[in-house]
């Protein structure tokens, strides 16, 4: 009586070796594919960086004149809580008192307000020309054609 193999119904040794080899080649193929994909991504990132470098104008900033820094940096966001509201009310109240007590305002209030607006508001140069809604071109004034002179009825 011979020894009974536990793998008698399974594949032969050469088949198992072949499957193992195929599995190894699949792993190698997948890692190579992943590597090529990562290399392509790196290449595209490199080219993007080069393009951004080409459009980088920061090196020209040394030739530009320096801007004056504002003396008071404005807060990023103006929050109106009760404390700031009270400060604002006091400030505006004092401003109102000084305006009312000003001699120019007392003599002619409307002229003083008008003068203040002229000094503070930006001047609007001209009214924009009206455009035709269909064509988008400025409307031209059409000349009225003269009516034919009255013809005499005498023949």
UniProtKB/TrEMBL annotation:
Cellular component terms (Gene Ontology): 90S preribosome; nucleolus; preribosome, small subunit precursor
Origin superkingdom: Eukaryota
Basic residues bias spans: 136-146
Listed InterPro entries: Slx9-like
Gene Ontology biological process terms, A to Z: maturation of SSU-rRNA from tricistronic rRNA transcript (SSU-rRNA, 5.8S rRNA, LSU-rRNA)
Keyword Transit peptide: no
Biased composition, class Basic and acidic residues, residue ranges: 124-135
First and last residue of the signal peptide: none
Pfam families: SLX9
Keyword list, A-Z: Nucleus
Subcellular location: Nucleus, Nucleolus
Annotated segments matching region Disordered: 115-155
Family: Belongs to the SLX9 family.
Protein name: Ribosome biogenesis protein slx9-like
């Amino acid at each position: 009586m011979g020894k009974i193999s536990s793998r008698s119904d399974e594949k032969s040794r050469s088949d198992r070796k072949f499957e193992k080899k195929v599995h190894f080649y699949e792993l190698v193929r997948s890692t190579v594919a992943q590597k090529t994909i990562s290399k392509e991504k790196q290449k595209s990132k490199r080219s993007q960086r080069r393009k951004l470098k080409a459009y980088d104008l920061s090196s020209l900033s040394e030739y530009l004149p320096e801007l004056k820094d504002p003396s008071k940096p404005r807060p990023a966001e103006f929050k109106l809580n009760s404390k700031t509201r009270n400060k604002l009310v006091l400030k505006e109240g004092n401003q109102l008192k000084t305006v009312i007590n000003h001699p120019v305002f007392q003599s002619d209030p409307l002229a003083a307000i008008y003068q203040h607006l002229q000094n503070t508001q930006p001047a609007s140069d001209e009214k924009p020309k009206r455009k035709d809604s269909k064509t988008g071109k400025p409307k031209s004034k059409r000349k009225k054609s003269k009516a034919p002179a009255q013809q005499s009825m005498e023949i």
